[in-house]
Backbone:
């Protein structure tokens, strides 16, 4: 059964990158870049990620197994235009996805074909359309929302996300681009409920997978007053 999934590396305080780069200078020298590369260090150290990029070396460990599993489960991807633009040159002629990628954008562009089975289709009629097209192309495997964080929030906000995996890195950034920000259109007494289904701790990062169970009202409990007397057994 095809699931729509998303996974992102975040700091303990919820940031997936440093403060937004304003376009003045080199992104690689920016605070946004510094935060992003800190929380994704575990990824670039992993053998499975390095192999997909065409690089040698890397650690064959639990983190690498998590990355290999994620790549293996994805039959198609949905991506934001900023991520696609930024990755087009570094990914080269054979990007690491090896599957159809649907890019959410306001700017039309012809489908871009790359080696290894990767294609980039530019979708101009919204995130729901991109997810639907990715489902049709996924061949029964998962649709992976590749990012960035703004797109993940859009998919979550639209109720289209089935599974969210957070890779929580033991660092506090203090400021930056926050994944779960205040633009989810939640009511004052409403929440999006998640059910944890897997936790894998490693020294570099803790992988927490959640099933997204959807929006629900925030209800006050009885603060312990309505449950009757507490019974103690000896």
Residues:
């Amino acid at each position: 059964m095809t699931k729509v999934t998303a996974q992102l590396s975040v700091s303990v305080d919820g940031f997936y990158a440093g403060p937004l780069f304003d376009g003045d200078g080199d992104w690689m020298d920016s605070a946004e870049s510094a935060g992003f590369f800190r929380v994704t260090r575990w990824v670039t150290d992993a053998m499975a990620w390095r192999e997909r990029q065409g690089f040698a070396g890397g650690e064959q460990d639990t983190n690498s197994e998590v990355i290999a599993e994620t790549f293996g489960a994805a039959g198609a991807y949905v991506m934001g235009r900023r991520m696609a633009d930024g990755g087009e040159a570094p990914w080269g002629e054979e990007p690491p996805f090896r599957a159809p990628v649907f890019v959410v954008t306001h700017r039309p562009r012809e489908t871009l074909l790359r080696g290894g089975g990767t294609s980039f289709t530019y979708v101009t009629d919204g995130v729901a359309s991109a997810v639907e097209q990715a489902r049709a192309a996924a061949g029964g495997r998962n649709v992976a929302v590749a990012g960035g964080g703004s797109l993940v929030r859009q998919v979550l906000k639209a109720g289209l996300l089935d599974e969210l995996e957070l890779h929580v890195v033991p660092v506090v950034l203090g400021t930056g681009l926050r994944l779960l920000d205040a633009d989810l259109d939640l009511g004052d007494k409403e929440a999006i409920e998640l059910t944890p289904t897997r936790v894998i701790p490693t020294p570099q990062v803790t992988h927490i997978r959640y099933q997204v169970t959807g929006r629900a009202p925030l209800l006050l409990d009885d603060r312990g007053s309505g449950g009757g007397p507490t019974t103690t057994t000896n």
About this structure: The two ends are 49 Å apart (CA to CA). The first helix runs from residue 31 to 39. The helical segments are 31-39, 41-44, 47-53, 62-73, 81-91, 127-137, 149-157. Residues 82 and 128 are 18 Å apart (CA to CA).
